[in-house]
Design goal:
The structure is a homodimer of 505-residue chains. The first copy, chain A, has 505 residues and is mainly alpha-helical. The first copy, chain A, has helices spanning 3-33, 40-58, 61-70, 82-99, 102-125, 128-149, 156-164, 170-193, 209-222, 260-278, 294-308, 312-325, 327-330, 335-341, 356-375, 383-394, 421-441, 444-449, 454-463, 473-481, 488-502, and strands spanning 230-234, 240-242, 248-252. Chain A contains 21 helices and 3 strands. The interface between A and B is medium-sized, with 33 and 33 residues. Chains A, B: Zn(2+) binds at residues 268, 272, 298.
Chain lengths: 505, 505
C-alpha cells in the first residue's frame, strides 16, 4: 500500500475502535443513570468484553506495520499536523501498551475491581486497616506499571502522571504548587481574620428539585452547551462522558437543601461538555479529535464553573432569573449577596466539599503523599498519621477519623496515582487562559454581565478545542497565553474575587 | 476436545455474541428514548458495526466444526433437552445464515435503511408512487431471501414467515384465519346493530401525564413486572427490548386526551416483559434462554392486555384505584362503565388504532396481500386498489387516501414480509392459553378480581416461559393446552366479553 492508503487503513482501524469504545461508554453511562440493579453482573461482563476488544485492536500487529511505514512519510513529518500528530501519538500509545506485560494488565484490572470494593467497605467501617493490604498491592502494581512505561531517567510516579498529563514534569509541578500553597495559606488567613463574614443560610432552604433541574438546563444552554449534540441527566457522582462525535452526556446532582451543588456541578460538567463538543468531530477517535490532557479538560470545567460562574458579572446577569426561578427562597436576594454566598470560604476536611480557595490545598497534600508512597519514602503503615499531620499543617484541621481523612477518596483504590495533580493543574490553567481571553476580548466580565458567552467560547474553541491532542498541555498554554504555566493568574484571580467578598485590602 | 469441552466452547462463544448483541440493543434503546438528535449518524455506524461483529461470530467456521462433532453426541440426542435443543437450533440458524450470500445480506441491509426513509416521505406526501419503486426492490430481495432459505417444497413466503414463526405452515394459517374472519365479521355485525352502544367520551378528557406515568408503573408492577430487573420508559412507538438476562426495558406512550393508550400500551409491553423476565437466565443468549417465536411473544402481551386487562374482573379490582388516581375525571365511574369503555368496538381504517375485534381483520387483509405480492399474483401497480377493495369487503370502509391505506405500516418498507400474521397468531394463542390456565387454576377471573396475578404468571412461567425456544410454537400450544391451535377460544372469549358490553344474545 502507498502511504495515503496505509494512513487510511490506520484511520479506519481507529475509527472502528472508537465505535466499540463509545459503546462501552454508553454502557457505563446507562449503568450510572438508570440501569436496573439486577443487571449489574451482566453489564460488568459486557463492559469487560468490550474493553478487551478495544485492547486487542489497540495492540493489533497491523498497527505496528502501518506505523513503521508511516513514520517515514513526508506528510507525517510535522508533529503538529493532523497526520503527523496522528502517527506520532498513535505510535506512542501503541509502544506504551505493548510495554505492559499481559500478566500486569490483568493483575491491575483485577486489583482495581477488588480495591474499590475493599475501599468502600473500609470507609463505611471507618477502618483503615481493612484497606491497607489492598493499598499495598495497588502501590506495588502501579509502581511496576510506572517502571514499565517510564522513559529514560523518569521516575515511576512521573510516568504514571504522564498517563493523565502527557509531558508534565514533577519537578516543575513541585515548584508551581509550592508557590501556590504559600500564597493560598496567606490568602485564607486574611479571609479568616476578616471582620466581614458571609452568611449563606439562604442557600440551605428547601429548593424544589424540578425547579433546580430546569434551572440547570437554562445555565448549561446559556453558556453554549448544545442540546442537539448532548444531554443533561442526573446521577449520584456527576461526570461528563462522550458517546460519539455529536453525543456528549453531562450529569449533575440535585440536593434539595444546598443549591450550589446543582448550579456549580452543572456549570462544571457543562464546561467539560463544551470542550468535548468543540473537538474536531471529523477526527473523532483519533488524536486530532481527542482531548489534550486531564489538566486541560479540568481547566475548561473550572473556567466555566469558577472564573465565569462565580464572577460578580455572572450574577449581575442571572440575578433576575434566579429570583424568578426560586421566588420562595431568593425573591429579595441582591447580586452582591449571591456573589458573596457563592464565594464563601471555609476550610474543611473533605476535598469534594471544599471551596475554591482551599480546594488546591487538599490536592497538594495528596500530591506530596502519593509521591512518597510511590518512591517508598512513606510506608502505608505511616500513611494515616502522615495524612493527619499534613492536614493540620496545611489546612489547619486534623481529621478525627480515617473516613474523613485518608479514606475519603476512591482514587488510590482504583490505582489512580498521578491523577490528583491534574485537578490543580486544571485550576491553574483555567485562570491563565481566562486572563489571556480577557485581554484578547477586551474584558470578559463586561460580556458576561450582558449574558454574552459566545466570544469567550469562540476564543476557547480556537485556542484550545480545535487543536485536540496535537499539542501537549504545556504547549497549548504557551501558545494560547504567550507564557509558560504559572501560579500567578490563579492567585491574582482568587485575590481579586475574595477582596471584594471579604473586603480585603 | 471431548464433547463436554466442545459444548462449553460453543456455549462461551454464543454467550460472548450475546454480550455484543445486547450492546447493540442498548444502543437502539438509547436511540429511541433520549439520544441527542445530532448523534444519529454515528449511532447508525455503531449499530451496523456491532451487527457486523455479531454476524461474523454467527457464521464463524469454528461453529460448524463444533456442531459437526456435537450432533453425534448422545447428550444431544433429545431434541428438547437443553443441550439437544441448543445443538439442533444453533445448527439450524448457522445453516440458514450461511445459505445467504453476503451480497444479498448487504443489499437487504441497504434497501431496508433506504426503504424506511422513502416510505416515511411517501406517507407524509400521501403519494404511493414515491414508495412503489422501493417496494418493488424490497419484494424482489425478500423473495430471493425466501428462496435461498426455503426448505424442500416450501414457498418463499412460508420461508420468510418461518423467520418469525418457526414451523408455521401457511396452509394451516389460511384455514384458521378464514374461520376467524367469518366469525369476526358476524360478531362485529351484531355489535354494530345492537341497540346498546358505548359512550367513551370520559376517556377523552385531559389526563395529566405525570399521573398516567405513575399509574402505568402501578399496573406493570401489579401484574408482576420486576423493576429490579427492568425499567419502564417513554417513547413515541412503544416496544419491549432485552439488554441482558436481568435487564428488560419496556416503553410506553402517554396521550393526554386518550387514557387507553398508556393503560393498554403498558399492559401489552409489560406482558412482553414478563415473558422475557421468565426465560431461563442461565441460558441467556442460547436457545433454551430465548423466546420461542414472535407469535408466542405476542400471545404473552395480548394475554395481559386483553384477556386480563380488558376483563370485567380486572376493573372490579382496579376501579377504586383508578378513581383515586384520576379524581377529576373518573371519580364517579362504575366498574361496568370502565369495562364497557375499554371494550368499545368501532371499525376504522388504521390497524394500530383498531379495537380488539376488528384488529385481526386488518391483519388478515395484509396476510392475503403479502402472499400475493410475494408469489407475483399481485403487482405493486395494482396494490393500492387491491388494498382499498379488501378493506371495503372485510372491514366495510374504503380508505380515502394511500396514507390511511396501503402506506400506513412501516413493515414492508423494512422488508418484514411474513411478520404480520404473528400478530393474529399471538391473539389466537393468548385466548387458547388463557382458557387452559382458567381451567387449571379454577377461574382466573376470581383471582383477578382480588388482584392476585401470581398464579396466572406462574402457570405461564411453567408452561411457556421455562421452555425458551426448545419447543416450537405449535408444540408449546399443544403441550400447554392439550389441543392444536384453533380460532375457537379467541372467538368464544370475544363473544363472551362483547355479549356483556353490548347485550348480545
Amino acid at each position: 500500500m502507498n502511504n495515503e492508503q496505509t494512513f487510511q487503513s490506520l484511520r479506519d482501524h481507529l475509527r472502528q475502535t472508537s465505535l466499540i469504545e463509545a459503546t462501552a461508554a454508553l454502557a457505563e453511562w446507562d449503568e450510572r443513570t438508570g440501569m436496573p440493579r439486577g443487571a449489574a453482573d451482566f453489564r460488568a461482563e459486557q463492559v469487560a468484553h468490550l474493553r478487551g476488544l478495544v485492547h486487542s485492536r489497540n495492540t493489533a500487529p497491523c498497527l505496528s506495520e502501518w506505523l513503521d511505514q508511516l513514520v517515514q512519510w513526508d506528510e507525517a513529518s510535522d508533529p503538529h499536523s493532523d497526520i503527523g500528530a496522528t502517527v506520532r501519538l498513535v505510535r506512542k500509545d501503541f509502544e506504551k501498551q505493548t510495554k505492559l506485560p499481559q500478566r500486569l494488565v490483568e493483575a491491575v484490572a483485577s486489583a482495581t475491581v477488588r480495591g474499590q470494593g475493599v475501599w468502600d467497605a473500609a470507609r463505611k467501617a471507618d477502618d483503615y486497616s481493612l484497606f491497607q493490604p489492598a493499598l499495598d498491592e495497588m502501590i506495588g502494581l502501579q509502581r511496576e506499571v510506572g517502571q514499565a512505561i517510564a522513559e529514560d531517567g523518569q521516575s515511576a510516579y512521573e510516568a504514571l502522571l504522564n498517563e493523565y498529563e502527557p509531558g508534565a514534569r514533577v519537578a516543575y509541578l513541585v515548584d508551581v504548587f509550592a508557590s501556590l500553597r504559600s500564597e493560598l495559606v496567606e490568602l485564607i488567613g486574611e479571609i479568616q481574620t476578616s471582620p466581614r463574614q458571609v452568611d449563606d443560610r439562604l442557600l440551605k432552604l428547601a429548593y424544589p428539585i424540578d425547579a433546580q433541574r430546569k434551572w440547570s438546563h437554562v445555565l448549561a444552554e446559556a453558556i453554549g452547551f448544545d442540546f442537539q449534540r448532548g444531554r443533561l441527566d442526573e446521577t449520584s457522582h456527576p461526570f461528563c462522558t462522550t458517546l460519539g462525535p455529536s453525543d456528549c452526556r453531562i450529569l449533575t446532582r440535585y440536593e434539595s437543601n444546598w443549591l450550589p451543588t446543582s448550579i456549580f456541578g452543572t456549570l462544571h460538567e457543562a464546561g467539560h461538555g463544551l470542550y468535548e463538543q468543540g473537538l474536531p468531530a471529523d477526527w473523532y477517535g483519533l488524536p486530532p479529535g481527542a482531548y489534550a490532557s486531564l489538566g486541560i479538560h479540568e481547566s475548561q470545567s473550572r473556567l466555566w464553573e469558577n472564573l465565569v460562574g462565580r464572577s460578580h458579572a455572572f450574577w449581575q446577569h442571572f440575578a433576575p432569573q434566579i429570583r424568578d426561578t426560586f421566588p420562595g427562597q431568593l425573591a429579595d436576594v441582591s447580586v452582591d449577596q449571591l456573589h458573596a454566598m457563592f464565594n464563601r470560604v471555609e476550610p474543611s476536611l473533605i476535598r469534594v466539599e471544599a471551596d475554591e480557595a482551599t480546594y488546591n490545598l487538599h490536592i497538594i497534600v495528596r500530591f506530596e503523599l502519593e509521591q512518597a508512597l510511590m518512591s517508598g519514602d512513606l510506608s502505608t503503615d505511616d500513611l494515616p498519621v502522615a495524612w493527619a499531620d499534613r492536614y493540620e499543617q496545611v489546612i489547619g484541621i486534623r481529621p478525627p477519623s480515617a473516613a474523613d481523612g485518608v479514606l475519603q477518596d476512591v482514587h488510590w483504590s482504583a490505582g489512580l496515582f498521578g491523577y490528583f495533580p491534574t485537578y490543580t493543574l486544571g485550576n491553574l490553567v483555567s485562570a491563565q487562559l481566562f486572563e489571556a481571553a480577557d485581554e484578547s476580548l477586551g474584558g470578559v466580565d463586561q460580556l458576561t454581565a450582558k449574558g454574552e458567552f459566545e466570544p469567550l467560547l469562540t476564543w476557547l474553541r480556537t485556542n484550545i478545542h480545535a487543536h485536540g491532542r496535537k499539542y501537549s498541555a504545556d504547549e497549548l498554554v504557551q501558545r494560547a497565553t504567550g507564557k509558560p504555566l504559572s501560579a500567578r493568574p490563579l492567585i491574582k484571580s482568587l485575590r481579586d474575587r475574595y477582596a471584594r467578598v471579604y473586603d480585603l485590602s
